[in-house]
Amino acid sequence: MSMTGSSGWAGWWGRLFGRAGAGHATQQRMQRHDVFVAEAAAPARTEADAHADAEARLHSGLYALALHPALDGGAACNDALLEATRQALLSRDWSARQLPRRPQLLPQLIQTVNDPESSARATAAIIGQDPVLTGNLLRIANSPAFRMQERPVDSLQRAITLVGTEGIRQIISAVLVQPVMHLQCSEFPQFSTIIWEHALLSSRAAADHARTVSQQDPFAAQWLGLTQGLGAALVMKQLLQEAQTLQVPLDYPSAEAVLRQWTLPVAQRVAAAWELPAPVHEALKETNADSPLPRTLRFARAAAAASLLARHGHIGKSQGLAWLEQLPGTPPHALLWIWRRLHGRPVETLADEHDGDA
Fold first, then answer.
1. Is the dihedral of CA 226, 243, 190, 55 positive or negative?
2. Which tens digits make up the pLDDT trace of 314-346?
3. What distance in Å separates the CA atoms of residue 189 and residue 207, rounded to the nearest whole number?
4. Cis-peptide, bond into residue 69, ω within 30° of zero
5. pTM of the model
6. Bridge-partner residues for 2, per DSSP?
7. What sign for the dihedral angle of Cα 223, 229, 233, 235?
8. What are the CA-CA distances from residue 40 to residues 33, 43, 44, 257 (Å)?
9. CA distance linking residue 139 with residue 228, whole number of Å
10. In a 3-state reduction of DSSP, which class is residue 352?
11. What is the DSSP letter of 44?
């Protein structure tokens, strides 16, 4: 059953987050009553179940944004396409030759980060002589993830003043990764934009979480956010190739299933091939999922998904925070601070109008 119409989408969002798009307060109260009755009758869930459910729903929302408008709630995965993609990813040569070329200036950036005497100005000088990279830096500095005030950032010097050494390092890292994340996908025209925005927000949230909660290296944490986005782009690229080879349509369920399973493993291979700091590719291994830096990555991906869903009007601020509170290990005050940092300034969405009823 195709669900590309507005009514189908509203119903899908309602089932996912207990609301019908930006629906009415009366509908929301009825939905909350139904949820309350269902939960009261259901077997008690463990805390781990709640964590997994919150994380899964936020990722489902992210994929719904990235794979729009091809939302299909009834179709099954194409098993042949899934298997062909799995085999291709397993057998692929993951050496540097077969991956997007490592950004030429990345070693210099890592070197300046490891130099305790390096200033924001010295770090920014890495790209300051390249007008294209400087322009990209200013665009990212003015993005919702980094913009800190109404007045736009119109110069490299102003960016340095506003965000400081660590902020400049984060922005430069994003500038270096953005060109290799672009992907043309006619079936899912929003995919590249949404996955890039999610990577940028994940990078920001991971750095903040590492600094304030897990007490880990913010530079390594921000690269977790960026490489997981690059992993998603490479997985989609492989899926597109396999669909073309098999001459089958690229369907939503198969795309979501492959992205869920392969984004982090492929990101880990990128981190190793690009010789990123060891904590980055160690944290991307699922076997270490309960240690501090991998937990930071899990939080950052979920927080970035919640932020995007709020920006697109599918959930409100209080609802996004409520979902994130179900994830383990982030104190409420830190969660609220990171959420505000992600948005730069208050984000008004249709969903916020109904937060008072939520």
1. negative
2. 888 888 888 899 888 899 999 999 998 887 554
3. 29
4. yes
5. 0.79
6. 72
7. positive
8. 11, 8, 8, 31
9. 21
10. helix
11. P
